[in-house]
Amino acid sequence: MHESCGVFGVYAFNEDVARLTFFGLFALQHRGQESAGIATSDGRRLRVYTGMGLVSQVFSEEALKHLTGHIAIGHNRYSTTGSSRACNAQPIVAGEGPQSVAVAHNGNLINCRYLYEDLVEQGYSFRTSTDTEVIANLILSSPEKDWVDRIRYAMRRLQGAYSLTIMTHDRLFAVRDPLGVRPLCLGTIDSGWVVASESCALDHIGATFVREVEPGEIVSISENGVESYPEDGGRKGLCIFEYIYFARPDSVINGRLLYPVRQNMGSRLALEHPIDADLVMGVPDSATAAGIGYARRSGIPLTEGLIKNRYVGRTFIEPDQRIRDLGVKLKFNPLPQMLSDRRLVVVDDSIVRGTTTPSVVKILKRAGAREVHMRICAPPIRYPCFFGVDMATRRELIAAHKSVDEICDFIGADSLGYLSIGGLIDAIALPRDTFCLACFTGDYPVPVQLEMDKLALETF
Fold it and tell me: Model pTM?
């Protein structure tokens, strides 16, 4: 499954804001590995530096030295609108002089093509093929004078998912769409303020978590301090995959630390899909906690059956299928002495295309496992996501056209059990209407075009 992006922002006069942003992005690296960037302001001028690759590959001491000021925003990218190329790296800077603005975006707009065409008719030019530049120019197109009013003007035209860090010459903004699809939180560091996609990034730089940015809210940070401009958008739609997979297990979202939540998912799987087996293992690292939960509930001993090569990127980073297949083999190494002639329960977070799971089953059986029983923390994924997760088209989703038994045969497992939607909600212990469950049910929180093209803006 393809992840969303990570955004970060700092407002602090007595800190090296570019360096703090670098380490904040480092903590959010799991959310996107295609490109990274940082923009800063000293109150007079915006500076930006972006590049392709991981945060540690993009930035050097020399690059950080030139990113001066007391405000910074940063971004890690996985492409959801626009291809993976240097010009699409964020933050995006638009406008000129005191009217310039920098934007970093986590999410995906479903009406970006319409907005793009409208802005082009108004005379706005584009140098990227991202919906982020659409957001930046939409803010600039507002007839309002105050930046909060200009952002609100844009929000009322935007449809889809967006958690944003926005920087002007003298202000930092944190913005979350009315559905609250992607997480965003606020923290303090000494006399300054920090915003981040996940609370783990605050921990990483020694900041203190204050609260989450609410759906529909604009948070303004300036020399006047923090000001909140809330707006209730009605229905909520936090992406449930933040709990299953995307966010780090040491992050807190909606008051829930993710590590025990994932243990609860494994525990519920053991109740819903018990099996006679010798050992339980979680596929590292995303299903490790769920594996522990399954073992505890079932009473079956826990083991490590696969060792992950932590210097190999996650298998979805390269969109080429041949590289993705090779990546699975490079990523895991089995422990034959632990697995030989054993009946295994293997807990994993999800099955999307059915690309990775057959390879995992083959690796384990070649290492000597007598039986492999797959248990999956997510219900069957039957519909694509249009809100910042570039998971697949519907025809690529294996559960959209195969039954559970057919998927079990396809992946080569001895049995297959998915966690139910009710069991998943119970494991998280939040109301069902908190979440977007569209990838399971097809019930999208806003109407969407069922086959949208992430490269739509590159056809102009």
Answer: 0.91
